[in-house]
Protein 1
Amino acid sequence: MAPKSATPRATGTSRAAAKAARREQLLSVAKNLYAQHGFHGVRLDDLGKGAGISAPAVYRHFESKEAVLEELLVGISDYLNSGGDAIITRHDNDAAASALIELIDFHVAFAMSEPELIRIQDRDLAALPEASRRTVRRLQRSYVSRWAEVVARANPGWSLDAATVRVHAVFGMINSTPYQARRSSAEVVGVELRAAAQAALGIG
């Protein structure tokens, strides 16, 4: 026979899982609505309706629609920065070009799978509270800086400033293309983005 505490513990675990799933659902709904209508064009009621719950129920997960925006934008900035760091760490003893190829693959995969987040960041970053906006900017600077260091190592004749300019240019190209080339197949877009990025960063 199971201990008496097993059922309450299991119930508590189930509730926590359900709450986490609902939170993720709200983030997904917000991502799509913010991308379509802009942060200021979406109400908390809209988020609740999209998730099949009432507006007051949304407050069980987020204190405001600004808090939802914070989680989306700070979260994706942290994901990119942490992912980039992990790739670079894995390639510490390899040729820089190997790390750069994987970094390009990583960012292209992100841009093609999360175009809504890119649109939200481009348009609605200013809607974040100042502290969160600073956090996003800090993470972005770190991400660019880490890329630029790898690019400079892969191209010994380039200065760090030159490498940084190239990285910004490549990010602009990768981040904008999934929206601009929606009539092309995802496979073609991915292949061409990777090839163009490698050429721009001196390893093509």
Note: The chain has two domains: 13-62, 65-201.
Protein 2
Amino acid sequence: MTPQVYSNSIRTFDVAIIGAGPAGLAAAEIFAMHPQEPASVVIIDMNNHRGGQFWKNSSKLPEQSPWHHHWRTYLRLEEKAAGFKNFLSTQVTRIQYDGQLFTLHLNGPRQTPSTITAKKVLYCPGTFDRQVPINGWTTPGVLSAGGIQAFVKENGTAPGTTFVVGGAGPFLLAAAATIIQAGGKVEAIVDASPLSAWFGLGVAGPLSPSKVKEALGYLCVLIRHGVKFHLKSRICNILSNSTGDRVVSVEVQTERKKIQYEADAVGLNWGFTPQLELYLQLGGETAVDRDGSLVAVVDENFETNIPNFYVAGEGTGVDGVLGSLVEGRIAAQSILGLDVDLKTRVDLKRHKVFSRAFQKAVAVPNEAFEALAGDTTFCRCEESTWSDIDGYLRTSGSIDARSVKGSTRAGMGNCQGRMCGFALCLASAAERERRAHSRADVEAAFHEDLRAIGAKPLAAPVSLESLAEDRD
């Protein structure tokens, strides 16, 4: 499986797998089972290990760690993937397609080539936590729920003592249980979703027994430790000490009253946003999923409108690890020209039904910005406030997200809108509704806003030295 090397040092592979999370590793296993075709496969991942965020730092934690899920599956897939050419700690910053070959521009360790080409690409992007601004959310001690899990997997301990976990959706249960298992205390889970949003999960549960078992395990941990659960409620204020350098309490608005919890840390999550920057660079077709996320449009074999470009895993919608594994296998079999067996198709259908129920439970409520104070930071990088955003929206004729971004600088900082971009699109949509735009117009504009905020000429930061070397 040695790649062909040309005199200009550009390497050409039959297949490039971008992303070594569950979907990418599952695809690699299929390719390993058919070593003659494709002849050369390369795996590229920004982390220094294979496994993505789900299996983050698995080698550093004890095998019986409560944060290991599907551990034997990981060991099997990891062994198969290690047999291919791997570029780890490497990011694909740009991608181009000339109708025959994809050109991938890489930024990694010195021995990594700056450019490779591939006949086919399987894109298995990860996600990042969606965030909605809350009064006090920039106080030290406020983390994303996914960030809390990453911290625990990295260090084996919780990043605080007493927590309140808030946002929307079932992932709040997983985050809270992880905190407790890591030695922390969770006072309350604050979920903006109504009880009806959870009914779908109960109905879809029998289609995914492992997910039901996992959820019941979380609930047992939470009940045993006396965690309070508030539905159709939201965190309205995160209060700090006099110097503003740590959290001291959290105000929660329920349907009936306001409650205050003492806490020194807060975990927030409103679902997840797939990282589609490379796909958008190619002009890939997208849609808005049920949870409001921008996702790639794929056919039954996970091929996109771009010939020979496949997307599997969270890039097609958040399905969880089991759904990602199935998608990775189907995409790899399709690339090989193999028939996908009926059982695999049925497994995919089951996971999709469950994921749709999951996504319904993480919808952000319309009143998300009602309690925001004018001086609350909206964009953490550029320090744009809610009054900057709201003031522009209410007085401007151009209320699309890019116009707001250009006028207020929200989304123009180091993270390039990964933190505030989704909220910016929500704010624009809310203003359209206030101006009585039709529902169809609001939804179409929201889709275009998500694409505009998600599209980036460079998918990751690069050094000036790298840009100078990459003259293409």
Note: The chain has 14 helices and 22 strands.
Protein 3
Amino acid sequence: MNYSSDLTDAQWALIREFTVRPDPRGAVRRHSMREIINAILYVSKTGCQWRLLPVNFAPWQTVYDHFRRLRLRGAWEEMMLRLNRRVREKRGRAPGPSYLIIDSQSVKSAAEGPERGFHGGKKVKGRGRQIAVDTQGLIWAVHVHAANKADTMEGCVLADLAMENAPTTQAWCADAGYRGTFENYVSKERGLPVHISERIQDGFAVLPRRWVVERTFAWGNGQRRLSKDYEKSTLCSEAMIHISAIARNLRTPAA
């Protein structure tokens, strides 16, 4: 049985090198890595529990084990970054971005875990997701933390991750919630300007460049696994955001 989340031959060719590794024990695989990745993409798209994977996929224990192994060696993030560069080049842009936009999203947490908190402003008990995107809406860094932690503080962690993944960055854009610690850290420690979008006082207006990161969050809502934070650890939460970005990059016409 085929699902809409399954990889095509062309899509599989783009990420195969990141997933296929020889078994150090010399064991013969019972299930192909393409089948495993299709199962992981199915979980991301439908939001189903690992134990409730359809029987035509590999056993859920096998699928989850490969998800975990790929996360531990950073393969999900590596795949996302490689596809980001490919999409940008296909669109006639430089492989690395020069301008990054940061924003956060608070989501309810459905699983018990150490990193949870209550966001007093948004009245959400769960976790905060911070992402840094370029002007195309491509994600270059992800940081998940308890919802009660300040965006401007946790944004510094995201900035370090983003600068490692996109060293070509020359400027940042953020909303007023990132004034103070984040703004000072990026400008003084990194030597880069931070453009703060001011709040509109009267009526409605589209904030310059701010809509790009909001659109990226909206794209993520198409993956039901991201409708809430279903993961026990923040590292798994970040991996699921990476997988969501990979799925979108693989399906964008420029890829």
Note: The chain has two domains: 9-73, 96-230.
